[in-house]
């Protein structure tokens, strides 16, 4: 009886050992197969949640774009997409956070032009090189901004704003979503061309920067059309000019700032893009690029992006890299000429 039990136990043990060895051999062969076959490795991606890092507080245009696209990708790939808001320091915090993770295709940065083409030029504390440390995945939107003032401000055009500022030097203020952001630079270049002095008041995101104008604590700001629509409809903000070379189709009644005499050379445009850490596998970059592009082609997502963030941009990773390279070359002389100082 005891011999039979021991014999059975030995048989079970031998079977378990053989099964374990076979599983180990199978796993080893699969690992070799995947390493030799990148296509099959790409098919296995993603197998865990993906992270989107946003350099702004929740509720702003960049955050909205990241969440819209992230929701689509999560549903399409069957993996959760987590949006992490890391505002502050002109995007330095968010970019360092992004670069602290392995370049394995599970962490992406969704940001605006300021973090990529502006802050590295004007901020001596920036210790990253956007062209070496980051890989463009896809451009997301071309993001127009509109100059808005508080409801009781005694100006109804850009020309009247400039005249008032000249008559009241040092009294007016403009808010932005942070030092070194596109809104900050937009205001500083406006100051230089208009020969006026509006004091910069930075915040940790566009929602707060806009609210401070609506409540009357700040004179004006530059914000996306979607983010100020409710304020304008309620009569809490006035739109004076678009920060675009040509009038914005959804708001044809709003003139561009360049239409104001003396402001013809005003040339500041904003955009949002998605980036990954340098070294991220090219097949993963291509896969996520395809997901972003398909997301923006969905009618409901495209409409929400236009309403809140800007016009969707169609780019491959290569086209995104070329676009960013040109933007960096464009902004360097603008920033040097403006002689912008960080507070």
UniProtKB/TrEMBL annotation:
Coiled-coil regions listed in the entry: none
Domain of life of the native organism: Bacteria
InterPro entries per UniProt: BUG (IPR005064), Bug_dom1 (IPR042100)
CDD domains linked to this entry: PBP2_Bug27
Any Pfam family the entry gives: TctC
Family per record: Belongs to the UPF0065 (bug) family.
Name of this protein: Tripartite tricarboxylate transporter substrate binding protein
């Amino acid at each position: 009886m005891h011999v039979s039990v021991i014999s059975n136990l030995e048989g079970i043990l031998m079977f378990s050992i053989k099964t374990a060895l076979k599983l180990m051999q199978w796993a080893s062969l699969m690992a070799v197969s995947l390493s030799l076959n990148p296509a099959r490795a790409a098919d296995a991606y993603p197998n865990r949640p993906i992270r989107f890092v946003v350099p702004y507080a929740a509720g702003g245009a960049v955050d909205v774009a990241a969440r819209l696209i992230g929701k689509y990708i999560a549903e399409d790939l069957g993996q959760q997409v987590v949006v992490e808001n890391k505002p502050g320091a002109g995007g330095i915090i968010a970019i360092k956070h992004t670069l602290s993770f392995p370049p394995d295709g599970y962490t992406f940065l969704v940001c605006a032009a300021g973090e990529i083409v502006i802050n590295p030029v004007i901020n001596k504390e920036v210790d990253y090189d956007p062209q070496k440390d980051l890989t463009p995945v896809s451009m997301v939107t071309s993001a127009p901004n509109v100059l808005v003032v508080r409801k009781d401000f005694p100006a109804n055009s850009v020309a009247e704003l400039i005249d008032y500022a000249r008559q009241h030097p040092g009294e007016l203020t403009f808010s932005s979503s942070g030092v070194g952001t596109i809104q900050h630079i937009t205001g500083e270049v406006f100051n230089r061309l208009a020969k006026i002095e509006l004091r910069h008041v930075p915040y940790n995101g566009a929602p707060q920067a806009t609210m401070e104008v609506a409540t009357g604590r700040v004179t004006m700001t530059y914000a996306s059309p979607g983010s100020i629509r409710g304020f304008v409809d309620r009569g809490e903000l006035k739109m004076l000019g678009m920060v675009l070379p040509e009038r914005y189709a959804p708001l044809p009644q709003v003139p561009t700032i360049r239409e104001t005499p003396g402001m013809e050379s005003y040339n500041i445009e904003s955009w949002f893009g998605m980036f990954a850490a340098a070294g991220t596998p090219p097949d993963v970059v291509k896969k996520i690029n395809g997901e972003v592009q398909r997301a923006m082609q969905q009618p409901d997502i495209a409409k929400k992006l236009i309403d809140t963030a800007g016009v969707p941009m169609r780019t491959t990773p290569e086209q995104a890299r070329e676009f960013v390279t040109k933007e960096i070359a464009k902004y360097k002389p603008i920033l040097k000429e403006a002689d912008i100082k960080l507070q």
